[in-house]
Design a protein that fits this description.
Layout lengths: L1 H14 L2 H11 L5 E5 L7 H11 L1 E2 L2 H10 L13 E8 L3 H13 L3 E5 L1 H6 L4 H10 L5 E4 L2 E4 L3 H16 L4 H14 L18 H10 L2 E5 L13 H19 L5 E3 L10 H9 L4 E3 L18 E2 L6 H9 L1 H6 L5 H14 L3
Parallel strand pairs: 1-3, 1-10, 2-3, 3-4, 4-7, 8-9
Antiparallel strand pairs: 5-6
Helix pairs in contact: 1-13, 1-15, 3-13, 7-8, 7-9, 8-9, 11-12
Length: 354
């Protein structure tokens, strides 16, 4: 029901001409930049999204677009392309970003930017949020006690409750060691096999070989997304915070052989970005940092709190068209249509909290 409502509203926006009007207005109101953020690339409607976006927007790599936003074109560098610039980012670096996203980028000649988590590339292990789900799905016991509560895994509600517990505990851990120790303990209790199933492969991290191949193509650029993807505001040790932010950059630069100047905050809402986190990102030498707060960016915006619109490959292209035009911000302000605002808000929470 929620999905149909969103497509219906997006269809009204598009076929009434409001999307085209919003694109025109954005071109007329000075330098503006939209950044869309995806996570997964496999399945869904990504091809349709890219075909629409490359027709109506000037798609750039993150660094080229941000240099242009804040410095403007140098004298003599005029372009006949007046379309609004747009960046397409993919957070985390899933394996399907290579098998599907990279393939589409080359075929359609669309530049993409991937924010990498090098700790997982090094280890080859599942991202913690993927592992939290996998642990319960592949449990080899029917009953387990975790943190004083017994869960009966032949009961769907109790399996869901255990998955929620694993996610919450992992998400809000005060250190990487605390998170990994907790997951290892539960994995042992549930006798989870270490083997990776074929259907689990697309959700695994990229390899360095895949990263270097994509980098050499010129169609994929990379940014930093911490070493191990913690919620940075939850990290209690300042030294570990600096390690997650600064060493991520230096490690990526060593593998890529080029500067890495942009950073993406894990989860990326303002409650996940403390003043200490913001200061540490600046001190680590990054020039820009992106959040998941919604909206267009202008030269007046803080370069360490850049806004992005969350997209998902399962969305209809009409929804992405309205998203890129900035119209969902208008929908969210419609106090007199609460069911639209409610469904819009819930859908954004579901896109990809990680």
């Amino acid at each position: 029901m929620r999905k149909r409502i969103l497509i219906g509203v997006a269809g009204i926006f598009y076929y009434s001409g409001l999307v085209a009007l919003a694109r025109w207005w954005n071109r007329r109101t000075g330098r503006r930049l939209m950044i869309l953020t995806y996570h997964r690339a496999m399945g869904g409607n990504l091809r349709q999204h890219l075909l629409y976006l490359r027709r109506h927007y000037r798609i750039l790599h993150v660094e080229a677009a941000l240099e242009e936003l804040y410095a403007g074109r140098k004298s003599g560098q005029r372009s006949s392309d007046t379309r609004t610039p747009l960046i397409l980012t993919f957070d985390d670096g899933y394996r399907d970003n290579y098998t599907h996203g990279f393939a589409l980028a080359r075929e359609l000649m669309v530049p993409l930017t991937i924010y990498l988590v090098p700790g997982y590339i090094e280890s080859g292990e599942n991202f913690w949020w993927v592992e939290s789900e996998r642990i319960v799905k592949r449990a080899q016991v029917r009953e387990v006690e975790v943190e004083g509560r017994t869960y009966h895994l032949d009961n769907a509600e109790e399996r869901t409750a255990l998955s929620v517990l694993l996610d919450v505990r992992s998400r809000h851990a005060h250190s990487i060691a605390e998170r990994e120790s907790f997951l290892a303990e539960v994995r042992e209790k549930l006798a989870v096999p270490a083997t990776v199933l074929e259907e689990e492969t697309p959700a695994m991290p990229l390899t360095w070989e895949q990263v270097r191949e994509m980098d050499a193509s010129g169609w994929i650029s990379f940014g930093a997304h911490t070493l191990n993807h913690p919620i940075l505001a939850a990290i209690s040790d300042p030294m570990e915070l600096r390690q997650q932010i600064a060493e991520c950059r230096t490690g990526l630069e060593q593998h890529l052989g080029r500067p890495v100047r942009s950073f993406a905050y894990p989860i990326g809402q303002m409650q996940h970005i403390s003043d200490e986190v913001l200061c540490t990102v600046r001190e680590a030498g990054y020039k820009w940092a992106v959040t998941t707060n919604y909206g267009y960016n202008t030269p007046a915006d803080n370069p360490y709190l850049l806004k992005r619109a969350e997209a998902d490959i399962d969305q209809h292209w009409l929804v992405v068209a309205a998203e890129a035009a900035g119209l969902w911000g208008f929908v969210a302000r419609l106090r007199w249509i609460p069911f639209i605002r409610k469904n819009f808000t819930n859908s954004k929470r579901q896109v990809a909290d990680v």
